[in-house]
Structure formats: structure tokens, C-alpha cells
């Protein structure tokens, strides 16, 4: 099999890249190790930055998002039993975010790709990337029990944190920056209308809690739990009781309970692999970087990477100049490190570490107080949350 761009992985990064290339008249083949149902139902991110929304619309993938997605103009910070709303449009010159689940973004992109895009092979596992520094890199893969090879001009590893593409970088040419956290998120989906019309990020001495949503009738909630916790350790009642305590306020706000349809634990880590390019192999999305989920940057970073790659390749084909491809890694990393910083700040602002002292707790409250009382501090949060420019730093 032969193509211009071999794409490993059909998560948001790989699927959007295939769509962008198709719109630009560049052919690609997507290899995805899992089946379609798995990819379409894997419960993950839920918040799209303004720039991500704009890109999906421009790629012709925004129709259902515009019908069913929920535009959000702010978030609530909850601490010390108080509530503080951050008004995004007022602080950022009109920007907002969209609540539209990653599962739905993937469903929309898969439908478009299968209808009028290049090949998208499910249950096709890439085994390696070979000859990344040659003219024609190859991806051997196994599809429905048969082995084959995809020959490409370029390979883009969109195969997530556990993929194979990153392994093709020689150790001497790679640098990894990482940090782990002593806590994780227990996430639930519940068939109950969200108890607030915007997201609530709560800091509590017992730990962080987040109220989010998937639709007007489905709530998505997260609870900080110790790293290594198993979802089965928490009964449904215990989850609701703990959420209620962490969201407590001095007014009459209440948390509505409903039947749980899903319960799972997400570990938290920060990770960056530099550089993001080796010869004709490029990494995009979680294959190159991970952020802790506080602040909802993971999916949005993946979108920035593939937009940057698609633009660079179109530029190379139109002008013959490799300049933008050569700049790919540095361009992406500027934005990635801003998102790493923001995700780290939000995480340490809102979670309580097992070894946190009373001093640490007071500092968190002082940082929150500063955001609630200084327009400059609040604007900093609003700008980062609604998103830095897709192809550069903020
Ligand atoms: P992925 O979505 O991981 O896609 C990679 C794809 O590559 C997968 O479909 C995988 O099956 C495929 N693949 C892997 N290896 C191979 C191979 N060898 N051959 C072929 N295909 C392969 N972000 C948030 O903002 N908020 C959240 O609440 C949130 N929750 C998360 C929960 C979990 C459990 C995880 C893992 C991530 C979460 N994220 C969250 C992050 C966000 O979902 C990711 O940043 C986003 O999915 C990145 O997209 P991607 O396309 O780069 O990678
Ligand atoms: C969601 C996830 C996040 O990490 C976040 O900061 C906000 C919302 C969500 O899954 O809805």
C-alpha cells in the first residue's frame, strides 16, 4: 500500500489530520488498531477551545457540533464555600468554549472520512515506523490477521501515549520532560441534568471536584482520588456523598443525583517529548505530550499540532519550501509548553496533595482569592482556558 501521508491512530488528532489533508487534496491512509465502536465510545475530553471549534467548522465537521454542542461563556471557581464566576467573553474580547464530547467529534470525523475521505482502516495495528530518515518511510502493520506495509512520503504518529511512533526516535535525539502526580480523577457519567449551567471547578480541603456535562440531560463529574485507586472501590452512593461535600456552598445550591452509567479512573501526568519530528516522521497529540486534565487542554493541543502539520505540508507542496515543516516541532512546542504550564497551575491550584501542609492550603486560597479579585489575574486564566493561538504561543 502507498500513500502521501501515513497516519497512525484514529483519535481526534489522526482523524482531523486526515480530514484537513483531504480538503487540501493530499491523500492519506489512517491505521487504527481498535475497532470503530471502541474509538467512538471511549469517554474522554469534553471541552473545545474557540480555536478548535473554528477549525472543525472550517473542515466541514461542525454541523452537528453547532446543533448539539453547548456554548459556554464562563466557568465557576468554588472555594471556601464561595462561588466566583469567570466571564470569558468579557475578559478575552468575546471568546468562549464549547461543550461537545470527544466521542462526538470522533463520530463526526469518522463518518466524513468514510463518506468521502481516503482509507481509514480499523483493527489495523502499526507495528513500527521504519526508515524515518529516508525518502520513503514505511509502516508495517497487521490488519485483520494479515501483515502489510504502508509506504509513505511522510508518517504522522497520532497514536497516543502508548503508541509505537515515538519509539522510532533514537534515544540520542530525544529528550523527555515529565512529572507524575500523587492523585487521579474518578470520573462518572450520570443520567441527570447538570446541577449548574456552567462547569464548576471546586477546591476543597478533602480534594478537587469538577462538575461538567455532556448534554442538558447528562452530567459528567470528577473527583480527586489517590493515585492507584480502582473505580470499584467507590460505591455510587459514596461518589455522590463525596461530591456533595466538596461542592458545598453557603447558599442553597444543591447537587442533583442520578443513575451512574459509567465510572472510571484517569491517571494524571505531565509529559513532553522533544523534538516532535525525526526525518519524515512527525508526532502529534498525546503521542508527543500529555497534560493533567485540569483545564481541558489535551484534545485541543492535538488539534493545534495537526493544523500546524497540515499547513506546513500544504506550504511545502505549494512553494517547494520545507521551512514550515522544519519549524513544526518548535512551533508546536511553544503552544504545548504554555498548555503544560496552565494545566500544571490549574492542577496545583485546585488539588490537595497527600503531603500538603496548612501553609500550602492557605497559598491555594490566596491564589484563588487573587483570581477572584484581580481582573489581570482573572484575564490570565480566561485567556489560557479559551485557548492560545493554534499555531504558536500565547
Ligand atoms: P488518542 O485519542 O489517544 O488516539 C490515539 C489513537 O491511536 C487511539 O485510537 C489508539 O487506539 C490508536 N493507536 C495506538 N497505538 C496504535 C498502533 N500501534 N497502531 C494503530 N493505532 C494505534 N482530555 C481532556 O481535555 N479532558 C479529559 O477529561 C480527558 N480525559 C482523558 C481520559 C483518558 C483515560 C485519557 C487517556 C485521556 C484523556 N484526556 C482528556 C486527554 C484527551 O482525551 C487526549 O489528549 C486526546 O484523546 C488526544 O488525542 P490523540 O488523537 O492525540 O490521541
Ligand atoms: C472535562 C474535562 C476536563 O478535564 C475539564 O477541565 C473540563 C471538562 C469534561 O470531560 O467534561
What does this structure look like?
The protein is 36% helix and 29% strand. It is α+β, with helices and mostly antiparallel strands. It has a domain at 2-70 and 98-179 and 269-350: 3-Layer(bba) Sandwich (FAD/NAD(P)-binding domain), CATH 3.50.50. Strands 1, 2, 8, 9, 10, 11, 17 and 18 form an eight-stranded mixed sheet that branches. The site of flavin-adenine dinucleotide has 31 residues, from helix 1, strand 9 and helix 8. InterPro entries: FAD-bd, FAD/NAD-bd_sf, RIFMO-like. Pfam families: FAD_binding_3. Residues 2-343 form the FAD-binding domain.
Give the arrangement of secondary structure elements:
Blueprint: E1 2-8, H1 12-23, E2 28-31, H2 36-41, E3 47-48, H3 50-58, H4 63-68, E4 70-72, E5 74-79, E6 82-87, H5 88-92, E7 97-99, H6 102-116, E8 120-121, E9 124-126, E10 138-143, E11 146-157, E12 175-190, E13 199-203, E14 209-215, E15 218-226, H7 236-247, E16 260-274, E17 277-278, E18 281-283, E19 289-290, H8 298-319, H9 323-326, H10 328-350, H11 358-373, H12 375-386
Parallel strand pairs: 1-2, 1-11, 2-8, 5-13, 11-18
Antiparallel strand pairs: 3-7, 4-7, 5-6, 9-10, 10-11, 12-15, 12-16, 13-14, 14-15, 16-19, 17-18
This protein binds flavin-adenine dinucleotide and 3,4-dihydroxybenzoic acid (DHB).
InterPro entries: FAD-bd, FAD/NAD-bd_sf, RIFMO-like
Organism: Streptomyces cellostaticus
Domain FAD-binding: 2-343
Amino acid at each position: 500500500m502507498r500513500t502521501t501521508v501515513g497516519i497512525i491512530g484514529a483519535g481526534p488528532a489522526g482523524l482531523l489530520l486526515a480530514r484537513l489533508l483531504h480538503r487540501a487534496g493530499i491523500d492519506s491512509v489512517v491505521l487504527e488498531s481498535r475497532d470503530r465502536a471502541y474509538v467512538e465510545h471511549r469517554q474522554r475530553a469534553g471541552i473545545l477551545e474557540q480555536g478548535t471549534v473554528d477549525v472543525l467548522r472550517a473542515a466541514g465537521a461542525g454541523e452537528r457540533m453547532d446543533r448539539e454542542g453547548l456554548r459556554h461563556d464562563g466557568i465557576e471557581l468554588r472555594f471556601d464555600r464561595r462561588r466566583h464566576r469567570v466571564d470569558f467573553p468579557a475578559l478575552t474580547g468575546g471568546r468562549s468554549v464549547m461543550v461537545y464530547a470527544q466521542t462526538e467529534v470522533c463520530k463526526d470525523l469518522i463518518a466524513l472520512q468514510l463518506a468521502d475521505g481516503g482509507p481509514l482502516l480499523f483493527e489495523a495495528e502499526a507495528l513500527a515506523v521504519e526508515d524515518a530518515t529516508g525518502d520513503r518511510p514505511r509502516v508495517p502493520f497487521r490488519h485483520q490477521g494479515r501483515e502489510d506495509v504502508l509506504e509513505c512520503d511522510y508518517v504522522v504518529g497520532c497514536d497516543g501515549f502508548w503508541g509505537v511512533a515515538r519509539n522510532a526516535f533514537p534515544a540520542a535525539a530525544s529528550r523527555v520532560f515529565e512529572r507524575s502526580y500523587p492523585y487521579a480523577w474518578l470520573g462518572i457519567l450520570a443520567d441527570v441534568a447538570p446541577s449548574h449551567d456552567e462547569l464548576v471547578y471546586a477546591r476543597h480541603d478533602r480534594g478537587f471536584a469538577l462538575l461538567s456535562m455532556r448534554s442538558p440531560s447528562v452530567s459528567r463529574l470528577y473527583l480527586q482520588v489517590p493515585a492507584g485507586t480502582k473505580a470499584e472501590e467507590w460505591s455510587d452512593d459514596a461518589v455522590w456523598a463525596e461530591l456533595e461535600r466538596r461542592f458545598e456552598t453557603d447558599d442553597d445550591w444543591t447537587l442533583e443525583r442520578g443513575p451512574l452509567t459509567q465510572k472510571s479512573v484517569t491517571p494524571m501526568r505531565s509529559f513532553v517529548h522533544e523534538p516532535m519530528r525525526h526525518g519524515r516522521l512527525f508526532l502529534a497529540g498525546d503521542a508527543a505530550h500529555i497534560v493533567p486534565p485540569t483545564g481541558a487542554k489535551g484534545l485541543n493541543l492535538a488539534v493545534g499540532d495537526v493544523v500546524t502539520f497540515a499547513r506546513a505540508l500544504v506550504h511545502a507542496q505549494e512553494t517547494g519550501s520545507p521551512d514550515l515543516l522544519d519549524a513544526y516541532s518548535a512551533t508546536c512546542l511553544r503552544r504545548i509548553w504554555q498548555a503544560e504550564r496552565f494545566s500544571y497551575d490549574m492542577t496545583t491550584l485546585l488539588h490537595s496533595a497527600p503531603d500538603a501542609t496548612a501553609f500550602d492550603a492557605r497559598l491555594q486560597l490566596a491564589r484563588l482569592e487573587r483570581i477572584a479579585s484581580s481582573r489581570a489575574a482573572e484575564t490570565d486564566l480566561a485567556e489560557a482556558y479559551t485557548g492560545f493561538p493554534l499555531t504558536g504561543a500565547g
